[in-house]
Amino acid sequence: MRNDRRKERRREGGRRNDESGFGLKSALYAAVLILVLGIIAFFVTMKIYNKNLEKAYTDIEDKGLADIGQEPTLVDKTQEASLSVGKTVDEQLNEIVANENEEPKEENNKQEENTPKKEEPKETKKEEPAKETPEPVKDPEFERPVQGEIMKEFAKDKLVYSETLKEWTVHAGVDIKSDKTTIVMAAEAGKVTAIKNDPRYGITVIIEHANGFETRYANLLTAEFVTVGEEVSKGQTIGTVGNTSTFEILDEFHLHFELLKDGEYQDPAIFINF
Fold this sequence. Notes:
Strand content: 15-25%
Low-confidence stretches: 65-70, 81-86
CATH class of the largest domain: Mainly Beta
CATH architecture of the largest domain: Distorted Sandwich
Number of strands: 12
Largest sheet: 10 strands, antiparallel
Number of domains: 2
Structural class: alpha+beta
Radius of gyration: 66 Å
Order of helices and strands: HHHEEEEEEEEEEEEH
């Protein structure tokens, strides 16, 4: 009986030893497996990290940042970035690239501020040449259209007696006594504006002069020496003395001469020394 108990105890002890040995082996295997997995994870992480570094470095080279003076290298900046708490490697790389892009802009802005701005040339107004004031045109200097004495004076504000009408009436011009066919001359240079056979004053020539003056030569025998629109000079022949005026047909041969200024009848004796 005792021997059986001893054998049984030995068996139990052996089983316990086997169980404890199996537990140690299992723990050892588990530790080795964890170590291997840790090593694999480490290498995988380093590989991913290196790929990110290479990608960031390539991007920087494309943007022309690889040739920046003696500034800290990308690796140094990446190592500093990796020490920041709570930030991934990609986030740090993005910040580095952003900072590199911002620095030249700030320098350019400073240079623009320091560079004096060129003032745009002001438009100079061209001085217009002073307009020359035209010289005033002198009033015409009239001469006698025919030689002879005054038979009937200018009578605008008073009445004169008409032998033909047998009554007292106004007289808008002067009658200059002259023989029939006496040459009638232009009292001043001007332009012939009309040649007509007036029902009262007979054959009449009208000449326009400067400054609104106008002369009229009536009771003519003929006016075929000039034409309408012709420019005549002072003293040029325009007709001959006749007796074609029905209002003065009983009077002696004479030239009925009128002078107007701006359409108003004027006394010819004021402008001509008869």
